[in-house]
Amino acid sequence: MPPSDLLRFSDPPLSLDPPKRRGPWRKLALIALLPMALLAAAGWYVAAADKFGPVGETGVFRSAQLDAATLARRIEDHRLRSLINLRGPNPDKAWYREQKALLERLDLPYRDIPLHARLLPPQELLHQLYRALDELPRPILVHCLHGNDRAGLASLVTRLREAGSSLEDAAGEVSPLRGAVFPDSAGKQLLAQYRQWLDSKALAHSPERFRDFVFAGYQDAWGNFKYALERVAGQRAPGAEAIKAPAQSGYRISGWAFDPETLAPPTKVEILLEEEPAAETAPDQPRADVVQALGLQEALGSGWELQMPPLEAGRCRDLRLRLTTASGRVWTSPPETRLCPAEA
Question: Is residue 40 assigned to a domain?
């Protein structure tokens, strides 16, 4: 067959020209672009993928926030029978109203449990999550916004409750492969604390021991205390923002504190500035509002107020609380606010 016939029937057409040599810069460019492509894919997975999938063989599924239409399909396809929303109730948001309406129309039970992505949950919310996994019919869907940290924590708890699941199985639920890329992801913190609790007692993991930890050994980000720093120098304590007051006047500071474990206020409240004690008092002021909020009459005398000396001129300092109970338990809060002399 002549060359013209070869060209006619070839697909793609053959070329009789010698191949062109391509410089190495093209390969280098591809190598340089590969990490960027992988980072883009990882960023999309962490922030945008719905991450719907099973938590082992537990009858629990996890996901990011799903729109109502997608959620309806997931419910039908996987015969989901209940849902745990880890973003908490948000009646002013459309996603929450639509999700709630769908679940009520389908007569599916659900729980709203507001967790934080990178803080250990309050003790009572961890208890709520544990009990919800007991009480709700399976298959259950647990979801947060992105399906990474809060859904990871709930999946971790699910795994640790199940017979036959190991600590390694549970750790997989809070790994970067499941979107938990931050080292202080709440689920990673919970697992680390549980491992330390087991090690301190020379125990191996079992579902029964995990339950003991949840209800008797766990310490939340607030030391299991209920407390509030309310007013500093006549201003409402604004968290991370600095509070300024004239250096010569000092600071009048007030709040309340209660220990649910001893059912009593702490015996001592200390103000720490950069870890150094600056003032202390004992709660003794009646707080009917705290009694109502906690539902515990024992919290009546949980209010406290003290006068802190003036700050050193020109220097701002972080303020923390240190609480001590009658049993000798001591806990120090993270920074609650920042104090500055007015001229700082």
Answer: no
In Å, how far are 17, 70, 138, 216, 340 from 127, measured between CA atoms?
75, 30, 19, 11, 39
Q: Looking at the structure, tell me whether residues 304 and 181 fall in a common domain.
A: no
Q: Tell whether 41 is covered by a domain.
A: no
> Model pTM?
0.74
Task: Inform me whether the pLDDT recorded for 14 exceeds 80.
Answer: no
Our measurement of the distance from residue 213's CA atom to the centroid of its chain's CA atoms, rounded to an integer in Å, reads 19
Residue 82: CATH number of its domain: 3.90.190.10
Q: Is residue 30 part of a domain?
A: no
Q: What 3-state class would DSSP assign to 92? A: coil
Nearest to 266 by CA among 301, 306, 220, 215: 301
Q: pLDDT tens for residues 253-286? A: 999 999 988 999 999 999 999 889 999 999 999 9
Q: Do residue 290 and residue 330 come from a single domain?
A: yes
Give the sign of the dihedral formed by CA 44, CA 47, CA 53, CA 56.
positive
Q: Where are the beta strands (DSSP E) in the chain?
A: 53-54, 60-63, 82-85, 110-112, 140-143, 226-232, 235-236, 242-245, 251-258, 268-273, 276-281, 303-308, 317-324, 330-332, 337-341
CA angle 10, 15, 19 (to 5 degrees): 135
Q: In this model, does residue 16 exceed pLDDT 90?
A: no
Place of tokens 């922030």: 47
3-state secondary structure of 163: coil
The residue out of 190, 217, 244 marking a domain boundary is: 217
Domain with 131, as residue range(s), is 53-217
Q: What domain count does the chain have? A: 2
d(CA 20, CA 104): 67
